[in-house]
Design goal:
about 280 residues, mainly alpha, globular
Amino acid sequence: MLDLLAQSPAFATVAAAVIGLLVGSFLNVVIHRVPIMMEREWANQAAELRGEPPPHTDRFNLLVPRSRCPSCGHRIGAAENIPVVSWLLQRGKCRGCGTAIPARYPVVEILTAALSALAIGVFGPTSAGLGATAFSCVMVALAFIDLDTQLLPDSMTLPLLWLGLLFNLWGVFAPLPEAVVGAMAGYLALWSVYWLFRLVTGKEGMGFGDFKLLAAIGAWFGWTALPAVILLASVVGAVVGIGLMVFARHGRETPIPFGPYLAGAGLLALYLREPLASLYGF
């Protein structure tokens, strides 16, 4: 199989897309359940500090319980869980109650498939291709979790950081010294902005999860990628924020998640790290 993938780039790319669809279906579970798991853990910890019994004792993780419709409790069978196809056949509705299933579910699956195919198409069935695919999948999950909840879970950002350093032990994406400095500089850059903004305004401008996500991006692509990542994320975030205020009457006091813009900029750095770095003479 490995020989076939190596000898046929087209087959490897198609295989990556198919596997990406399946991974995208799982990412939908991650996006939905990880924030709930965090909230349940916080509630149990708070109850323990108060000397009360934990409010959540039933098992709830990425595998248990089985997926159900949140409206009617209809258990989702295997035939209803085929990526994209099931959503189309059911016309975007639950079989049990007819409640609309958000189009975001197939969007996540298609996006993950496209990014997986792109990663293997560009880097081939190599360690770099595997790393690029893993990085892309985590970026998708983090972006949508942040959009939904304005949370960037440590359970995802920190392993992503260490995984980047692991790949760069062999210099897959950046020399290890640049990756280590990138992790430190990524965290400290946004940490400094956070405290400066807080000292000036008395408000929190961003969450600590943003620091850790940028640190992870620095660990993958080195410190030379960080200026472009920060600039791209900030410019796009500012444009979208102004657009929301002007056209969608989005209040200035309503927070806008920064994670999706960092994730998008990180994906650009994956494929354009050297051209972006060269803009700054690095």
